[in-house]
Write a structure and sequence with these properties.
Elements lengths: L12 E5 L4 H16 L3 H12 L5 E3 L2 E2 L2 E4 L6 E11 L9 E10 L4 H15 L1 H9 L3 H10 L5
Parallel strand pairs: 1-5, 3-6, 4-6
Antiparallel strand pairs: 2-3, 5-6
């Protein structure tokens, strides 16, 4: 079992989202979290923007991990979004982003939060995993990849 095992479900996987910029992507993520966790979508966008204002969460190679701390949240929650067309995200390599893994964690940082971020970063640093995430057509398959990644490494 890894830090991602219980974090993803098929209903938090959005493939080929039509977002045209970071604001659109964050709004779509806000809606995903509002439905899944019951957090106000505008508040989610605020938390994501607050973190992004500190520096881009893009890793390079077309991926980013937008994340934020949420007051009142009891457990970490995540969502994965693949964009139909890549968007500018101030990535260190200058490449646009098309795969985003969003993470919301309780306001108080914990070791679990750091382990989850580390696992997501390792996943997105794996070229084979990025390829699978960028081509998968079934949210269930994407969810399985995210849940099982690292358990065979």
């Amino acid at each position: 079992m890894n830090a991602l095992t219980n974090l993803f479900t098929p209903d938090c996987i959005a493939l080929d989202n039509p977002a045209k910029n970071r604001s659109d992507a964050f709004a779509a993520a806000g809606e995903l979290f509002a439905q899944r966790v019951g957090i106000n979508a505008a508040e989610v966008v605020g938390f994501l923007n607050a973190r992004e204002d500190l520096g881009s969460t893009a890793l390079g190679a077309g991926v980013a991990i937008p994340h934020g701390r949420v007051k009142g949240l009891k457990q970490p929650s995540a969502a994965m979004m693949r964009l139909k067309d890549p968007i500018e995200f101030a990535a260190p390599d200058g490449e646009p982003v098309s795969t985003l893994i969003f993470l919301l964690v309780p306001e108080k940082a914990t070791q679990q939060h750091l382990e989850i971020l580390s696992s997501i970063a390792q996943l997105l640093s794996d070229a084979q995993a990025r390829q699978l995430l960028s081509t998968a057509v079934d949210p269930v398959k994407v969810c399985e990849l995210l849940q099982q990644w690292g358990s065979t490494k």
